[in-house]
Amino acid sequence: MKLFSWLLPRKAPTLSLAQQQRLLRLPESAGLGDHALRAQRWVVVDLETSGLNLNRDQVLSIGAMVIEDGAIDFSQTFERTLLRTDNPLSPSVLLHGLGPSAIAAGSDPADALLDFMAFVGDSPLLAFHAPFDQHMLTRALKDSLGYRLQHAFMDVAALAPMLCPQHQGREAGLDHWIKHFNLYVEDRHNASADALATAELALILFSRARAQGIDSPQALQQRLNQWQRRKIIHSF
Questions:
Q1: Which residue numbers delimit the Exonuclease domain (predicted)?
Q2: In the chain, how many domains are there?
């Protein structure tokens, strides 16, 4: 029975009064507007997790950068490495250089996630392979805060092949696009470094989008939805 304990309904998280008050102050998502891409504040997020199982593995660290006014704003950065976990960790944690003692000394998940959502504000999120990050973040927020994430997530891994159709890299990973655009990454598989690399890639792709007549977050998401639907149709 213990083997399948992750399938059982989770108890509502117990929050302090201060945490409850912070939760109530979090702004709602503003969604994707029809204003210019340069006018949109984006939060580029990367999560390091204990593994790739969407239901059992946990978020260990969060790194985020902000794109605002068409550039990376280095005065707005977020890093909470080592969210504390009480469950056994898989060997994949070694990939991130996170040992058990470092994780045990990490931030309280509720406080770290409250800090992150306050940092996000009402902005949409960008991530490379966003469905994974979105799922893991959604579950972490629900488990630790009882919070329902409704912010828009856009997938940079899908934007890249859509906006660079001449490039044969439709299923390429972040390392591939880093090499293709000659981006410098100091420490891959570190949440903050990966978020910065994703932000740099996103800026290149936004420039490509504007050159193709796509100049609003809403239009970019609509074009991405259409492109993904065509991919599904052509796969049959």
A1: 41-211
A2: 1
**103 and 82 in contact (C-beta within 8 Å)?**
yes
Q: What are phi and psi of 190, to 5 degrees?
A: -110, 130
Residue spans of beta strands (DSSP E) within the chain: 42-49, 59-68, 71-80, 125-127, 153-155
Q: What is the CATH number for 159?
A: 3.30.420.10
- In sign, the C-alpha dihedral spanning 118, 120, 122, 127 is negative
Question: pTM of this prediction?
Answer: 0.87
DSSP letters spanning 66-125:
EEETTEEEEEEEEEE------S---GGGGGGT--HHHHHTS--HHHHHHHHHHHHTT--E
